[in-house]
Write a structure and sequence with these properties.
heterotrimer, A mainly alpha, B alpha+beta, C mainly alpha, A: mainly alpha, MetI-like fold, 2 domains, 12 helices, B: alpha+beta, Rossmann fold, OB fold (Dihydrolipoamide Acetyltransferase, E2P), six-stranded mixed β-sheet, five-stranded antiparallel β-sheet, 9 helices, 18 strands
């Protein structure tokens, strides 16, 4: 818009947008605030917003009682491991589809996407059986593999759309300049692809971190990540709002922060490049 | 050194043959221009020479060595791309040095060559900038710089000026010509613009649908086009073609006469018609004449001072000695 | 670029990804298909052996033809599950798309602190489903201590037990809250790609604001809206944690996916659940085909 907007209109926009934004964000804000209250203050009526006695006690209790670190560590390994593994497998595939396309490329891409659409519940029992058979039930390795597989189509697609934006002529120029395949990848392709790969990693880490079907159904104790840890709070015991809030805050804080960094690339990843 | 010979080279994409068997020799030091309408296969031909596409059959040799299956990196050719294809993450200095780094030259030699290329191309002040911070003309020069530092056997240009505005294009055209005068290296230049072809080339190769229609110097092509296609493609404005009785008078299926070889006047000549549009360029004026009974429109070049207007009836006199005659197949009748 | 050498290298580089996904798709799918034609009740003594059994289509289990398929659709829980699923998917889609469009337009307007508002609006998308379900269930919808109950009381109304007495609206609220950011973000991106000259041209042509929205903005968004609807449909058909944590499928919130989950893992009727799974796969594939048409078109561009 190459036109100046009246300050009045801008003020109305601002007020409206902030109001709605805060309303949408409120459940998260409330959870974070509650995590610093005592249990009694957490359920007070009328609710207390800010003038309560700030305490870190809930965090301490949650950590002590539930071995929070173990769940956190499982989440990190499952989300991180599946993302790294997925990237290693997807980069060559996406590279070849973007730069050496054949008639089948489009079909392969769409077919990959279709595997992502497979309803998990439809294959739940076979996977469960296979996990029992292979001794993968409640193991981090098993979940890393499953997470990698369910996110692989998204990883390939995101990388493909990023690679596609690197003009082919630049790679040809590198070839004309005497670069071997190895040098071409090292000096030209990689530096240009790094931003795309980074945002792919970020989004897939988030998706894997939040995944709550396989993590709930294929883990029990040893490999349970934060999603399962939180679900264990679903049967209440006495006053537990503040502790629930503390546990929730710890589970979502890392992802909220990562998510804010990735919001620009989010759209492309979530729509398989169809909206940029 | 840079003598490039193509023997019976063909290229097919799947079932479509884009280059039927083709022979061509490009002599060392020659400035050769491939010209033709879009889709004529000129870029494909260049990419075959570069090694960026495999030939389907036939042989390409560079300086007597068979290069048909040699990868592009090893052919000793340098290429300037239409989009310039600069490495966006590298400074101008690093862009120009890249081929030398790939050739594993020592740093002192690299610095020396980059500096000399930069001074030749007026880039010395921009060496530490990124391509994104340069104007179109400067990017073009960086791309050329990256090509010349390698001292290649031949330069390949793929429509290098098509992304520049008109004024810059004329300037760069001159610069590339001067570069060729100085380096005396073989250059192969692809364009769809016949003006570029005429002004720069030692040798023009006119292509249509993968076939070579004619090879020759600009003036050969202008004076003795081998067929109607070349006659129509070379020269601006286009040659007028007249079929029917008027052509039969000359013993041909059709005749061609260039706009500059027709005189326009208001007092008599063998042909006549009505002025439809007159384009005044100052030095020249082009008249588009309708209702001649010969062709839809006859284009005529006249002196800038001649001032006919829309609707005026005028008379045309062609120069009989420069009428081109073509047979039914469009081939020149000698 | 497209030389023989690079072609074969390309195939090799694609192979691992293609192979893994092929296995991941075919093996479980064929197992589900086999089980759907079998009587398989692990709790009643139906056992399968390791190894050879798997390759010979589990001879220890009896083939029952289409019995599971007909039982699944004739069971009394089938049609309620279908209508619940449709209600949730439809309700969430309407809410998120309509609010998403309005919100996207609002966020596209000039304002102070646009970046911060954007972050606030997107945040719910990053909250893991179990957390959002639990937070809503306890801290907002709880009949005694939830914020909604406090709010009800403040207006003199008697708070209800939202998740049992108004279970469906509550679930739709929770899921909409989670997916509104997704819709907003994608529609906002699409709006920002609208050429402002188009709007200015329409303004020159004398189109008032509402007409400009109707004839320029909305058609421009139609592709993005289609994508939002299709992608959300696929994910919404599969929502699990939100129901698992809040109602456990009770109070009329049992969706098709949840019904299948219960058949397979809770009542351990694998044959019946697998038949349901096949239905779910077919349903998802219909939506997926539509989605891929839209996405595939984009590939050619």
């Amino acid at each position: 818009m190459a036109r100046s907007v009246t300050t009045r209109r801008k003020m109305i926009n601002t007020a409206l947008a902030w109001g709605i934004g805060l309303l949408i964000f409120f459940p998260i804000l409330w959870t974070i605030l509650t995590s610093f209250k005592t249990e009694a203050q957490a359920i007070a009526n009328p609710p207390i917003f800010l003038n309560f006695d700030w305490t870190l006690e809930n965090y301490a209790v949650v950590q002590e009682r539930s071995d929070y670190m173990k769940f956190l560590w499982n989440s990190v390994i499952i989300a991180g491991g599946s993302t790294i593994l997925g990237i290693i497998i997807a980069v060559p595939a996406a590279w070849s589809m973007a730069f050496v396309p054949s008639k089948a490329t489009k079909d392969i891409l769409l077919w990959m996407l279709s595997t992502k659409m497979l309803p998990a519940v439809g294959v739940l029992y076979p996977i469960y059986l296979l996990f029992v058979e292979l001794g993968l039930l409640d193991s981090r390795a098993g979940l890393v593999i499953v997470m990698m597989l369910i996110n692989l189509p998204i990883i390939v697609w995101m990388l493909y759309t990023y690679f596609k934006e690197i003009p082919g002529e630049i790679l040809e120029a590198a070839r004309m300049d005497g670069a071997e395949l190895k040098e071409e990848i090292l000096y030209v392709l990689t530096p240009m692809a790094v931003p795309g790969i980074a945002s792919t990693i970020l989004l897939n880490f988030i998706l894997a971190w939040n995944e709550a079907f396989w993590t709930l159904n294929l883990t029990a104790v040893d490999a349970a990540p934060l999603t399962a840890f939180i679900a264990s709070y679903s049967s209440p015991e006495g006053l537990f709002y503040a502790k629930l809030s503390a546990a929730s805050t710890m589970a979502i804080a890392p992802i909220l922060i990562l998510g804010w960094f990735s919001q620009k690339q989010l759209v492309r990843g979530l729509t398989f490049g169809a909206v940029k | 050194m840079g003598r490039i010979v193509l023997e019976k080279v063909t290229k097919s994409f799947g079932a479509t043959e884009v280059i039927p068997p083709l022979d061509l020799t490009i002599e060392d030091g020659e400035f050769t221009v491939f010209v033709g309408p879009s889709g004529c296969g000129k870029s494909t031909l260049l990419r075959l020479i570069a090694g960026l596409e495999d030939v389907s059959s036939g042989q390409i040799s560079i300086d007597g060595q068979d290069a048909t299956i040699v990868p592009p990196a090893k052919r000793g050719l340098a290429m300037v791309f239409q989009s310039y294809a600069l490495y966006p993450h590298m400074s101008v200095r690093k862009n120009i040095a890249f081929p030398l780094r790939m050739a594993k030259l020592d740093q002192a030699e690299i610095d020396k060559r980059v500096a000399s290329a930069a001074s030749v191309l007026n880039l010395s002040d921009y060496l530490d900038r990124r391509p994104g911070q340069l104007s179109g003309g400067q990017r073009q020069r960086v791309a050329i710089g990256r090509a010349i530092v390698r001292e290649p056997a031949a330069f390949l240009f793929d429509e290098p000026l098509s992304n520049l505005d008109a004024a810059l294009r004329v300037g760069m055209r001159l610069e590339i010509s001067e570069l060729h005068e100085r380096l005396k290296t073989t250059m192969i230049y692809v364009t769809h613009d016949q003006v570029e072809a005429m002004t720069m080339a030692d040798k023009i190769v006119v292509l249509r649908a993968g076939n070579i229609e004619q090879v020759g110097s600009p003036l050969e092509l202008y004076h003795t086009p081998r067929n109607q296609f070349v006659a129509g493609f070379i020269g601006s404005p286009k040659m007028n073609f007249i079929a029917g009785d008027e052509a039969a008078k000359h013993g041909a299926a059709s005749i061609g006469i260039r706009p500059e070889h027709i005189t326009v006047s208001d007092d008599g000549g063998p042909w006549s018609g009505v002025v439809s549009v007159s384009e005044h360029l100052g030095s020249d004026t082009f008249f588009h004449i309708h209702d001649t009974g010969l062709a839809d429109t006859i284009t005529v070049r006249a002196d800038g001072e001649v001032g006919f207007r829309h609707g005026d009836r005028v008379h045309l006199t062609p120069r009989d000695d420069v009428i081109h005659r073509f047979d039914r197949n469009g081939l020149r009748i000698a | 670029m497209a030389t023989q050498h690079s072609r074969s290298a390309a195939r090799l580089m694609m192979a691992p990804a293609v192979f893994l996904l092929l296995v991941w798709m075919l093996v479980p799918l064929s197992l589900t298909l086999i089980f759907s034609f079998k009587k398989f009740l692990p709790l009643r003594g139906d056992q399968i052996e390791s190894g050879w059994d798997w390759v010979t289509f589990f001879p220890s289990l009896d083939w029952v033809g289409f019995a599971n398929y007909s039982r699944f659709v004739t069971s009394s829980s089938f049609w309620p599950a279908v209508s619940t699923t449709l209600l949730i998917v439809g309700g969430v889609l309407i809410i998120t798309v309509c609010l998403g469009i309005l919100l996207a337009i609002l966020l596209d307007q000039p304002m102070w602190g646009q970046g911060v508002v954007r972050i606030l609006v997107i945040a719910p998308f990053f909250v893991m489903p179990t957390v959002s379900a639990l937070v809503w269930k306890n801290m907002f919808l709880d009949p005694n201590n939830g914020l909604f109950s406090h709010l009800w009381r403040a207006f003199g109304a008697e708070p209800i037990s939202f998740l049992s007495e108004a279970a469906m609206p509550s679930i739709i609220l929770i899921v909409s809250w989670q997916w509104l950011p997704f819709a907003t973000l994608i529609l906002l991106t699409a709006i920002q790609s609208l050429d402002s000259e188009q709007l200015e041209a329409a303004e020159m042509d004398g189109a008032p604001v509402l007409k400009r929205f109707w004839f320029i903005v909305l058609p421009h968004l139609s592709r993005a809206i289609t994508i939002v609807i299709l992608i959300q449909t696929i994910f919404l058909l599969a929502i699990f944690a939100e129901i698992f944590v809040t109602t456990g499928g009770a109070f009329g919130t049992r969706t098709l996916s949840y019904l299948i989950f219960q058949r397979v893992l809770e009542s351990q009727n694998v044959g019946l659940g697998s038949a349901g799974g096949v239905y779910a796969i077919i349903l998802a594939n219909i939506v997926a085909l539509l989605l891929m048409r839209v996405v595939g078109k984009n590939l050619d561009a």
